[in-house]
């Protein structure tokens, strides 16, 4: 088998292409067409440039229209002010309600005073004062013990 080698081809200079022809299917608007989907149609064959619609000057609305628009704007502003005031009142009410609920939820329940508190405080003070001689506090300790026993009997926890 004979093996062939790939030889590089010589580049052939390209001939310049002629400029592209303008497209004939340039579309224009037609006002007499009742179907709005078919507004864009190709121009007649004799027209070289696209036909443009004349620029219509802006028509200023009549003063009656301006008055109507201004009245609607003023009414909208009044409604907005009312809504803002209502929102402020609602925020205030919600804040007060939240404070009330928070106070009720985290309020400490009524705590009964500890019975025999004066006897307990006297006994404790005596022990602090007489650290080395606690026998001096025996009468106060006895009073505190008797008070605790009375409270237990009144509550129904007494020795039976």
From TrEMBL:
Source species, please?
Linum tenue
Identify the domain of life: Eukaryota
* Basic residues bias: start-end ranges: 1-14
Q: What is this protein called?
A: Uncharacterized protein
Question: Where is the stretch described as Disordered?
Answer: 1-47
Residue ranges that the Swiss-Prot or TrEMBL entry lists as coiled coil: 66-93
Question: Any idea which UniProt keywords this protein has?
Answer: Coiled coil
């Amino acid at each position: 088998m004979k093996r062939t080698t790939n030889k590089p081809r010589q580049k052939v200079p390209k001939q310049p292409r002629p400029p592209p022809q303008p497209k004939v299917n340039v579309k224009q608007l037609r006002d007499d067409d009742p179907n709005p989907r078919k507004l864009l149609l190709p121009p007649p064959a004799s027209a070289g440039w696209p036909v443009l619609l004349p620029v219509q000057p802006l028509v200023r609305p009549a003063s009656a229209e301006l008055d109507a628009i201004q009245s609607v704007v003023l009414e909208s502003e009044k409604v907005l002010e009312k809504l803002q005031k209502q929102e402020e009142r609602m925020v205030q009410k919600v804040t007060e309600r939240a404070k009330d609920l928070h106070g009720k939820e985290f309020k400490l329940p009524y705590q009964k005073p500890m019975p025999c508190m004066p006897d307990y405080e006297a006994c404790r003070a005596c022990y602090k004062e007489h650290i080395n001689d606690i026998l001096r506090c025996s009468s106060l300790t006895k009073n505190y013990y008797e008070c605790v026993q009375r409270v237990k009997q009144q509550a129904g926890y007494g020795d039976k």
